[in-house]
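Weekly modeling sync, notes
Attendees: S.R. (lead), two postdocs, one rotation student

Agenda item 3: backlog of single-chain predictions. S.R. asked that every request posted to the team notebook include the full sequence so nobody has to chase files. The rotation student volunteered to paste the first one in as an example of the format we agreed on. Action items at the bottom.

Example entry:
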Amino acid sequence: MDHPVSVLYLEHDGKVLLVDSDGNGPQLPVMNNVGNTKFRFPSPEEASRLGFAWEEKNNFQILGYKVTKAHPMIEWPEDWAWKDECISDDSVHPIAREAIYRSIHRLVSKVMVLNNDGKVLMGKIERGHFVGHWTLPGGYMDHDEDPATGCVRETLEEMGIEIVLDDDAPIVTQRIFTNEGISFVSFTYKAEWNGDNSQIKLKENEISDFAWFSQTEALSRAVSGFDITALKHL
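Predicted structure, as returned to the notebook:
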């Protein structure tokens, strides 16, 4: 199936526009269908022929193809495809399926652990996105996990300590870090812990060191945009 070099990923409240190889749409996939590739995202020219405007959000590259994420300026398109059904239909082009997969938010839960001196606990990372840098405790949330539970679990796993969160609402931040277009959403909480440093047991092969930093020092050492935004609220 021929595929345009540049396509539009048009999404409106869970619905996406698919077209056939001639640019005709909307087309509907069948969940769990196995068949020849026949549906894809439209090119900007093909979308223009359908008679509506759109607002560009961002763009990213997939195997040399440019994908522009955009919101169509129309009422909710009931006759478009559900994005969740596109992922599991082999008749939908891999570029469209990969773009939809990348657009699903990755959820992260973190915590600012403070002691009586107002210092912030941070760990030096050995794996993941920020190897060799200092970050707040936390990580990916489990599929069925509340963010307030996730950061407590992650702190226990990474630092070996049990914490109780403050009643403050979490700081919620969203960012796309790379040109792959993957969006992360972070929930960062606050907690107090005044135990002895001997109680801290670092997770092997993940956290190489820990330290208590003043709020100014923590902010200067933080590299994660999520951590920086949260620490500015202290």
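Discussion: group reviewed the output briefly. The first helix runs from residue 44 to 49.
Action items: rotation student to repeat for the remaining queue; S.R. to check formatting next week.
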